[in-house]
Description:
This protein is mainly alpha-helical.
Amino acid sequence: xxxxxxxxxxxxxxxxxxxxxxxxxxxxxxxxxxxxxxxxxxxxxxxxxxxxxxxxxxxxxxxxxxxxxxxxxxxxxxxxxxxxxxxxxxxxxxxxxxxxxxxxxxxxxxxxxxxxxxxxxxxxxxxxxxxxxxxxxxxxxxxxxxxxxxxxxxxxxxxxxxxxxxxxxxxxxxxx
Length: 176
């Protein structure tokens, strides 16, 4: 079954609007309950949508991954890189989904982030991205391993972009 690229793109657009709406109207009870009970679970789905879209954009809409000779080393590397990239993307999204919850519950309109945690995150992203690029170079073109590497890079880029946007905004207070 092929998922059209418009479906994850529509989900991401609706998700972004829901996040903004939840932050702006967090003091309203139904919106707060949505931000508290429903919105955090979207952090599980958003990285998968981003990975799927990045594979579709990188390989064109009509190309599926081709079966290639199975390699244990490539399979293990793809699994580890994918899990680490998913975890990093999930952690960034989940952390910033705290904004609507904090706004509704405590009236806080900003997050406190540590600089050392941001440095550690950036180190992990760089190492994971370099590993994904290495996997992309080692994997046959249009193989499922190349798709895993592209999806991992997409998740890392989107999480880093979210981190950068929030880090530069007044919604974050940096502490040493």
